[in-house]
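Researcher: We are triaging several targets before committing to wet-lab work. For this one, the compound of interest is adenosine-5'-diphosphate. I'm pasting the protein sequence and the ligand SMILES. What I need is the predicted three-dimensional arrangement of the protein with the ligand bound, expressed as structure tokens, so it can go straight into our comparison scripts without reformatting.
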Amino acid sequence: MTDLIEVHGLEKSFGPHHVLRGVDFAAPAGSVTVLLGPSGSGKTTILRSMNVLATPDAGVVRIGDSSIDFSRPPDRRAIKSLRARSGMVFQAHNLFPHKTVLGNLIEGPVQVQKRSPDEAAADARALLEQVGLSGREDAYPSQLSGGQQQRVGIARALALKPEVLLLDEPTSALDPELVGEVLAVIRDLAAENWTLVIVTHEVHFAQDVADQVLFLDEGVVAERGGAEVLTDPQEERTRRFLARMLDAG
Ligand SMILES: Nc1ncnc2c1ncn2[C@@H]1O[C@H](COP(=O)(O)OP(=O)(O)O)[C@@H](O)[C@H]1O
Ligand SMILES: [Mg+2]
């Protein structure tokens, strides 16, 4: 079976700062890839490159049958096509504060994808049920807890029907007591065979869900493997990083 995601030779500099130095990985459909590594190692830049929010200097990103080789300037159609394959969930949810939950969920499908408001609303209600927020469609973001807002953020990304969900530290801005409910939603998505790429420092959660673990350090994948990377790392820098994470948690 071919992989749903392929990232090859990804390079990115910001001015003199060489942030990604040849990142390679692949992931089959239905798999969970966990990215971890110290702050500044390039994790967010990888996710942003996959969604073409950042433009790599070189390398190939393929999701499904949409692919861009960044060694040439990509055209607008290719960017649009690749971008549509993935949905992003950020650390802070970035919901529109003046729109209701339902309004937030149907905005992209209706405005960007030109779907009918009725159909988008029906899908949105099903997604709200999936993230445990049935009946909250008329609430405004400010009336929800941070954990509920982040669950709406996940539903909003799914509303665009991506093939892959990219989650960048989805719980790190939350109060500790709200982390569990968001992780539970992500666990459900994994159980339903969503293809996920997650940056997280929640090591125990990662052990449960990860099919693949990539440890990033200074813009390269310094260690990779299955969930055993988290319990039995081979590289000294992975070991030191995990020890710090487990101490902090
Ligand atoms: N838009 C940008 N402009 C300049 N430097 C950036 C930009 N985005 C990221 N960087 C730098 O690239 C490095 C990697 O960033 P990032 O991918 O956010 O790392 P991580 O998510 O692993 O903490 C950091 O040193 C960061 O300061
Ligand atoms: Mg980051």
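Researcher: Any quick observations?
Model: Residues 17 and 219 are 10 Å apart (CA to CA).
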